[in-house]
């Protein structure tokens, strides 16, 4: 990394944080379409931040200006070797102009891939790739090296920040660029604080737990570094990843929540869970679960939730729609106490739109449920891209719970692998009560980058009382070939999938 601008290079223009290098080619007050390119500063000394450092492998420049590249990695509870290797992350913003992004590696790579992107990609040399971006986007660069195998760089090319709060607002906790340490189960929303703002170049070493509050915002272009927290089972065999105190961010029984812009790296468990909450907005998050077991992306066990324009990576389910969560209503003294402490809630009116999902080994991109209860209805998933296949499908369910999931629509999806569905209704399992079903499932305009016969895995009900029913599959294509029957695929189904229509 060379010549990354220091924090002092920032200035404020009309309330927005930008580099002095922004090009202004239009003159005259009030003219639209001013080109804007912002590279973010280095965070300062990372030597005391667990599992986070400057990348020694990838160097990134934007229009010739170097920007800081992070490397996140884990040391403990590594079920999979790639966790120790970790991943790399870079963030910058631009608007009203094309940008040239150069990615240079410190050693030659033998091959590479870029998913998903509409960018023009050029291999300049065996140590350099060049991208031309017309619009903001998020994508994964995978480079293969002779000695270390695959290495990954997540590129978040954002649009400019909007509504940057004032430092002088007493309801704002304004975190400037640099390292801030708040520790485990931090609740910043005290003493009148309603907004946490993370300036570009901010690293916050903390996990969060917030219960019973409303009107809260976390936003900015900084990142949460959570490598200081080991996986729950490392600390205590009685603990588990679903405990509120063991997650990256746990919000329960809250209202009117907004999460925007920031990144999360090295989370030891679920990266964001909103449980029994109302009115939740998630926009442009970068969840970078590089290899922990159980590091799900988001659990959306709430009502009126929107998740848009985010990059969600994890070694377990990227989004879980409904399931069970930690009520924190009793102390766990024995293993038997665990089941008594978890519960479910009503879930509904969820919109999951224009996100990129990167699965590494485990779980589904959309896990409809892991043994949920109560009710769940009106779920829309659209405009998303799935770039890594796992042991499950893009759309999955491990349904040993009691909830009847109603009216799920999945449309305008691009899948860069062959695993479309892994939807399984089953008997009572893993604290679920059984007896659930799925009623009303529509998949339309699904583009799969695989041959039809490769498309898999499961779409199976359990019984007449626990079926999957009223299924519509419309305009499903695999390598450009339209699929009109399960017989064209390798999807396993059974007699408890009822009322299936292909169009």
Would you give an account of this structure?
InterPro entries: Pectin_lyas_fold, Pectin_lyase_fold/virulence. This is Right-handed parallel beta-helix repeat-containing protein. Residues 1-23 form the signal peptide. Keywords: Carbohydrate metabolism, Polysaccharide degradation, Repeat, Signal. One of its GO terms (biological process) is polysaccharide catabolic process. This protein is mainly β. Among the domains are: 7-158, Dex49a from penicillium minioluteum complex, domain 1; 363-503, no CATH class. 3% of the residues lie in helices and 51% in strands. It contains three helices and 44 strands. Strands 18-20-23-25-27-32-35-37-34-31-26-24-21 form a 13-stranded parallel beta barrel. Strand 41 and strand 42 (481-483) form a beta hairpin. The radius of gyration is 23 Å and the shape is globular. The model is unreliable at 5-29 (pLDDT under 50).
Summarize the structure.
This is Right-handed parallel beta-helix repeat-containing protein. With 503 residues, the chain is mainly β.
What brief labels describe this structure?
51% strand; 503 residues; 13-stranded parallel barrel; mainly beta; Dex49a from penicillium minioluteum complex, domain 1; globular
């Amino acid at each position: 990394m060379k010549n990354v601008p220091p924090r002092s290079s920032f200035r404020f223009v009309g309330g927005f944080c930008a580099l002095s290098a922004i090009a202004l080619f239009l003159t005259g007050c009030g003219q639209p379409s001013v080109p804007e390119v912002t590279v973010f500063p280095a965070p300062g000394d990372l030597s005391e931040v667990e599992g986070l450092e400057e990348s020694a492998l990838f160097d990134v420049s934007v229009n010739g200006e170097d920007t800081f590249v992070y490397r996140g990695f884990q040391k403990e509870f590594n079920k999979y070797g790639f966790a120790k290797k970790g991943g790399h992350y870079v963030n910058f913003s631009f608007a009203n102009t094309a940008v040239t992004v150069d990615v240079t590696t410190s050693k030659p790579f033998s091959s590479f891939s870029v998913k998903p992107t509409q960018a023009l990609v050029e291999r300049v040399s065996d140590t350099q790739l060049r991208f031309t971006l017309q619009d903001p986007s998020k994508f994964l660069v995978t480079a293969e090296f002779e000695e270390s195998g695959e290495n990954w760089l997540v590129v978040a090319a954002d649009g400019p920040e909007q509504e940057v709060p004032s430092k002088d607002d007493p309801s704002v906790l304004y975190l400037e660029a640099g390292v801030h340490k708040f520790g485990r189960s931090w609740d910043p929303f005290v003493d009148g604080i309603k907004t946490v703002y993370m300036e570009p170049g901010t690293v916050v070493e903390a996990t969060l737990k917030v219960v019973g509050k409303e009107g809260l915002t976390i936003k900015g272009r900084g990142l949460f570094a959570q490598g200081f927290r080991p996986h729950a089972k490392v600390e205590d065999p009685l603990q588990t990843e679903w405990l509120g105190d063991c997650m990256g961010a746990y919000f329960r029984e809250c209202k009117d929540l907004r999460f925007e812009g920031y990144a999360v790296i090295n989370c030891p468990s679920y990266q964001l869970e909103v449980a029994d909450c109302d009115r939740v907005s998630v926009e442009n998050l970068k969840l970078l679960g590089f290899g922990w077991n159980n590091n799900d992306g988001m659990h959306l066990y709430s009502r009126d939730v929107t998740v848009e324009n985010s990059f969600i990576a994890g070694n377990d389910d990227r989004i879980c729609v409904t399931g069970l969560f930690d009520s924190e209503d009793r102390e766990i003294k024995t293993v038997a106490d665990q089941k008594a402490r978890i519960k479910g809630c009503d879930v509904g009116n969820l919109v999951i739109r224009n996100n990129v999902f990167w699965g590494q080994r485990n779980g589904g991109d959309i896990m409809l449920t892991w043994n949920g209860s109560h009710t769940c209805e009106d779920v829309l998933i659209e405009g998303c891209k799935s770039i890594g296949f796992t042991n499950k499908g893009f759309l999955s369910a491990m349904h040993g719970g009691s909830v009847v999931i109603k009216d799920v629509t999945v449309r305008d999806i691009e899948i860069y692998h062959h695993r479309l569905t892994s939807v399984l209704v089953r008997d009572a399992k893993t604290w679920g009560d059984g007896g659930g079903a799925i009623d009303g499932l529509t998949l339309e305009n699904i583009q799969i980058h695989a041959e039809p016969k490769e498309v898999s895995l499961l779409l199976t009900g359990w019984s007449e009382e626990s079926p999957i029913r009223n299924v519509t599959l419309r305009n499903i294509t695999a390598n450009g070939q339209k699929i009109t029957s399960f017989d064209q695929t390798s999807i396993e189904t059974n007699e408890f999938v009822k009322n299936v229509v292909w169009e």
